[in-house]
Amino acid sequence: MGTGLEKKGFVEENMFQRMQDRLCFLGNFYAYCVDEFGNQITEWSGDMEEIDPLQKVVSGEQLYNLFERVRESALEEQIIEETGYGNLKAAAIGYKAEGKLKFCWLACCVFPEEDSDREKPMFKGSKRITTEERVCETAGLLRMYAKQAFPLEGSEEKEKLLKKTEYYTEALRLLESGQPFLEAVNRLLELMGRYLQINSTGLVKVLKDERFIDVICEWLEAGSASGYDRVRNLERPEVFSGDKPIVISTDSVMSKEMKSYMKGQNQKALISIPLLLNEKPVMYVYVSEKSRKKIWKPEEIDFIGDMTRIMQIMLIGKQRKESLTASFASLQAILDNVGSCIYVQDVESGRIVFANKQLKSTFELELQNGKLNEMVQKGRPIGLREGYHELQYKEKGRWYDLYYTYITWVDRSRASLYVLHDVTDKKIYQKKMEQQAYTDFLTGLYNRMCCERDLSMQLDKAIAGKMTGGLLYLDLDDFKHINDGLGHQYGDVLLKSISNSLRRIKGICNSCYRMGGDEFVIIIPPESFDRFEEIIQDIQAIFSKPWFLKDADYYCTMSMGIVNYPDDGDNVQDLIKKADIAMYDAKKAGKNRCSRYSQKLSTASYKRLDMEKNMRDATADNYREFEVYYQPIIDVLSGNPVCTGAEALIRWNSSTMGFVPPSEFIPLAEYLGLINPIGNYVLQEACRACRSWNDNGREQFKVNVNLSVVQLLQPDIVEIVEGTLQETGLNPENLTLEVTESLAINDMRRMKEILNRIRQLGVRIALDDFGTGYSSLNHIREIPLDVIKVDQNFVQGLAEDSYSQSFIKMVAELANAIQVNVCVEGIETEKQFKVVNDMKIQLIQGYYFDRPLQLPDFEAKYVMNH
Fold it and tell me: Do residues 566 and 450 make contact, with C-beta atoms less than 8 angstroms apart?
């Protein structure tokens, strides 16, 4: 391939390809490089047998679009974008000089399946598995190498640059080699000294008390003597303080203390650069000249900075191998994404040992001037160990909810945890919600709530005036392919374009609704019914043309269900349901067509109606087809694992449809309003069973029952629970009601009131599926609870995934701080059990111990047989 590298005045074409190969191997991904015009100038790095399948999935067009985004953007220098596979992403890594793109690496990156979107298929066959952090680190090294290896046009120092590039190559080889930290640093210091032709280079370590240092590495030019009479417990000078580099040339203006130090060390010039861990200087790299005057050149400072950056990466790699620091990094990653400002303060020293990103961003000035703690302490009542308080910060005109408690930090020291949640915009948000209650925020169309209201009014008008109107239910065909293939942003663009086109059709400009996802409803008012067929044709015409998305034309058709009112129904829900059935009939018939509702629709279109009928019959027949299964909950802290009770799980074995998965019938039960009687049946059966266990020698056995948000919203839910306890005679302390995090998006004040009333009965509350969807520390603060159940998604890769381990450990620590228990769900293997058991988690649930069992089997195994 003619790359054209020689035309750009590059140092050495083959060297560039070799360095790209080396860095892509280090980053564990596949890539090639293009110039500023998009012309390919290097070959792919990686095994072509692995690259060929990738090129079939990630098209050249997608990679070129990423290149154009980087080239045209004034802000983005690298982009990582989703593909049609959950664990495969495309990336563009740019190198810019003087504000213009010079080179861009286009890459394919395969990530661990357990960290990927499980709703998408997984890409198989790649031997290179990477992480986003690793890709970003390697991207920095690619830019660093490009900066040195490829001068701007017109440079005449090729020979000198070649020598410099060789030093960079050797430095990157050391980074790749995995040598012990000090061995690699010694070689890097030698490279720095030889390239700069300087007297000495070295590395000092700050000791624990921060007043003394050790010289742990030093390189000396031949004939030069060390400036230190010893290497241990040296008093820490000013040049090795602070978190910013210090550059001193012979002619630099210095403080009196600095001048005294330079004179005492007989130094003419010096550069000191800190190495940071957790944003704190722990070591300093220094470069020193003693024998001659020295004015540091910008390119020399850049070279020293680049070598120090490599040492920084090495130091971070060393840190990751130390379990304590690795735990801190994992905890930091979690707390940076909880949606609240969080900081931790050492109780003894008063020093802030942790602050998450949101706090640093929100209170940057307060952290700098040391006023953050003063502000927080004003809002904390004196003498209370933990609690909640509303705090007003007048200087910013903001209000915060403050939560505070004592915790044990990762280094086992005693610390105070503070959580600040901004509530200033709460009323503004509520007002916007009221204004937007009838509007879909993405498309600007009216929403489902508005549709039901308007259809009710039009239906009443049609009945009263003996007129006819129409209802059209539209569903986009294969919209998911566009959404997943092009990205959600282009899916949103398509939805907006369709909405704008629908609104331009005469007769329905004010009666178009987005029901959610890719579904739309159009109400044809009686006064526009004379254009009924024309409106349908106009809609079909919209979808007969391609949509211009991502620089190309894409077709997206729709399936339409049609009903007339009041002929096909005289109530809103019935009409929408029938239009939905007709739409699915159109889908079944091959999509991209219309179907009018009639009683002669195929039986398959009535599957949901059949399920509805069978469910109503089953509930009317004293719930005979429903059965409660019980999955044991195991206490593992008492030595040998001991069953302490079970979670009650509903199953439906229909006499006509067979076994129906809960994922299908529970949403339908909620939609039909049958979840309440079914849920009440489960509650009663579970309480009756638990009372039997208690009476047969298992006094401490408890039973967990799931409550949906629909059930919790019943006005008499507290009375139902109380009545069930009285009827069955179960001790309230042996009943735990599990609620999901989805309740956090409902009326929190009302939910909190209901749960508090239930707890007053003596019943325990568990927060189920914690860690999915709406998790935040604020929800734990808001919801009165006794148990946190960690979702099984965090358990699947638990034996190998440090993130999952750190998450569960963090939840356990926070649960301990607020005095609630933790139960981990989904434990299936011995390795998973061992990891959780080592964390001193008390309660475990999963197939490792047992599957959900029918009542007789559960009692035979855990009640009567012990």
Answer: no
Chain segment 228-269, per-residue pLDDT in tens: 777 889 999 989 999 999 999 999 988 888 888 888 888 899
Asked if 300 and 306 touch (Cβ cutoff 8 Å), the reply is no
253 three-state secondary structure: coil
Report whether 278 contacts 328 (CB < 8 A).
yes
> Do 788 and 813 form a contact (C-beta atoms < 8 A)?
no
CB 647 within 8 A of CB 630: yes
Which residue's structure tokens are 């509007």?
439
Tokens (6 digits) for 778: 């604020």
Helix then strand then coil, % of the chain, to nearest 5: 45, 25, 30
Task: Dump the DSSP string for 445-492.
Answer: SB-HHHHHHHHHHHHHHHHHHT--EEEEEEEETTHHHHHHHH-HHHHH
Question: Is the pLDDT confidence value at 155 over 80?
Answer: no
Q: Which pLDDT tens digit goes with each residue over 667-712? A: 778 757 788 899 999 999 999 999 999 999 899 999 999 988 778 8
Query: Taking CA 74 as the corner, what is the angle to CA 71 and CA 80, rounded to the nearest 5 degrees?
Result: 60
How far apart CA 232 and CA 255 sit, in angstroms, is 26
Which residues have C-beta within 8 Å of that of residue 547, sequence separation ≥ 6? 494, 497, 553, 554, 555, 556
- 35, 30, 27: which is closest to 10 by C-alpha? 35
Cα–Cα distance for residue pair 630/703, rounded to 1 Å: 9
Tell me the CA distances in angstroms from 117 to 27, 84, 125, 790, one per residue in order.
22, 10, 18, 19
- What are the tokens at 410? 């990762």
**219: its two tokens:** 């390189």
Q: Classify residue 292 as exposed, middle or buried by CB count within 10 Å of its CB (0-12, 13-18, 19+).
A: exposed
Whether 507 contacts 531, CB under 8 Å: yes
Whether 340 and 417 have beta carbons less than 8 Å apart is answered as no
Helices (H), 155-297: 158-177, 181-196, 256-264
| CA atoms of 811 and 187, how far apart (whole Å) | 43
At 508, list the tokens. 């329905």
Euclidean distance between CA atoms 505 and 520, whole angstroms:
14
Residue 422 bridge partners (DSSP)? 400
| Packing angle of the helix pair 298-320, 158-177 (nearest 10 deg) | 10
Cα–Cα distances (Å) from 264 to 198, 257, 259, 260, 335, in that order, read 19, 11, 9, 6, 47
Strand partners, 231: none
pLDDT digits over 800-845, tens only?
Answer: 777 778 888 888 888 788 888 889 888 888 888 888 888 888 899 9
Beta bridge partners of 561: 473, 595
Reference 257, options 269, 239, 283, 272; nearest CA is 239
Strand order in the sheet with 558-565: 512-516, 519-524, 469-476, 558-565, 594-596
Residue 600 gets the label, from left (phi > 0), alpha (psi -120 to 50) or beta, of: alpha
- 795 and 824 in contact (C-beta within 8 Å)? yes
H helix or E strand, kind and range, residue 839: none
Q: How many residues does the chain have?
A: 866
Q: Are 631 and 651 spatial neighbours (Cβ–Cβ below 8 Å)?
A: no
DSSP state of 624: T
Alpha carbons 46 and 529: distance in angstroms, whole number: 63
User: Rounded CA gap, 468 and 526, in Å?
Assistant: 5
Q: Number of H helices and number of E strands within the chain?
A: 28, 32
- Within 10 angstroms of residue 612's Cβ, the number of other Cβ atoms is 18
The residue written with tokens 């629909």 in the block is 710
Strand order in the sheet with 414-422: 352-355, 341-346, 414-422, 398-408, 387-393
Pair 766, 704: CB distance under 8 Å:
yes
H or E element that contains 583: helix 572-588
Evaluated on CA atoms 17, 19, 25, 30, the torsion sign reads: negative
